[in-house]
Design a protein that fits this description.
transmembrane helix, mainly alpha, 213 residues, 0% strand
Length: 213
C-alpha cells in the first residue's frame, strides 16, 4: 500500500476532527435568526461554536486543496478527471468493486483517491456556503454591500443550499468511515497507516553504509 506523507496525515487529522465536529454540532444547534425566537442558551453556544468551526474548516480545506493543486502527484490522485487518461484506473477499480474486489487503499491513483477528491469538493462546498451563511445573515453588513444587508430571501435560499450540501457531507462521512473499516478488516491497514505516526526516513547513504557492513 502506498503510504501517505506526513503533511497529508496532519491535514487528515485536522479535517477529521473539524468536519466531524461540524456535522455533529449541526444536529444540536439552533439558528437564532430562523429556528426559534427564544432558543435555549446551550443551543446558541453550539451555534456560535459551529460558525467558528465552519470558518476554521474552510481555512483548513483551502490550505489542503492549495497544497494538493501544487503537487502534481496529489492532484492526479484526488482530481484524476483533470488529466486525460487518469480516469482509467478509477473506472477499472470501480468495475472490479462491482464484482466484489476491494480496490487497494493508500496514496495511489485510483478509485479511493477519486472518492477522496469528491469528498474534498463536497466538504469545501459545505464550508464555503456555511461562511456565506454567516456573511449573508440579515443584519450583517458584508464587504462591497454599500451598507445594505441582503434580503432574508437570499439568506434563506443560501441556507437551503448549505443544508443540501450538508446532507451530501453526511453521506460521504458515513461512507468514508464504513469503507475505512472495511479496508482495515480486509487487512490493508488503512487506519493504522493514516493515524499512526510516519516511520522515520533513513537517508540513502545510511542504507548503503549498512549494506556494506
Amino acid at each position: 500500500m502506498a503510504r501517505w506523507d506526513g503533511p497529508s496525515k496532519i491535514y487528515h487529522w485536522l479535517l477529521s476532527f473539524a468536519i466531524s465536529f461540524e456535522l455533529f454540532s449541526s444536529t444540536l444547534m439552533s439558528d437564532v435568526s430562523t429556528n426559534s425566537a427564544f432558543p435555549a442558551p446551550s443551543s446558541v453556544g453550539v451555534f456560535d461554536a459551529h460558525q467558528i468551526g465552519g470558518i476554521t474548516c474552510a481555512l483548513i480545506l483551502a490550505a489542503y486543496i492549495r497544497r494538493a493543486w501544487r503537487d502534481p502527484q496529489v492532484r492526479d490522485r484526488l482530481f484524476p478527471w483533470l488529466r486525460p487518461g487518469a480516469m482509467r484506473p478509477v473506472l477499472r477499480e470501480a468495475r472490479a468493486l462491482l464484482r466484489g474486489h476491494l480496490p487497494p487503499a493508500g496514496a495511489a491513483v485510483g478509485l479511493p483517491g477519486f472518492i477522496h477528491g469528491l469528498g474534498l469538493l463536497v466538504m469545501l462546498g459545505m464550508a464555503v456556503t456555511g461562511v456565506l451563511n454567516i456573511l449573508l445573515r440579515p443584519g450583517v453588513t458584508i464587504p462591497f454591500s454599500l451598507g445594505f444587508a441582503p434580503s432574508f430571501f437570499i439568506y434563506s435560499v443560501e441556507s437551503v443550499v448549505h443544508n443540501a450540501i450538508s446532507v451530501m457531507a453526511w453521506v460521504y462521512w458515513i461512507g468514508h468511515v464504513a469503507f475505512a473499516i472495511i479496508h482495515e478488516a480486509a487487512g490493508q491497514g488503512v487506519l493504522r497507516a493514516m493515524f499512526a505516526p510516519s516511520p522515520p526516513t533513513v537517508p540513502d547513504n545510511a542504507v548503503q553504509v549498512r549494506d556494506r557492513a
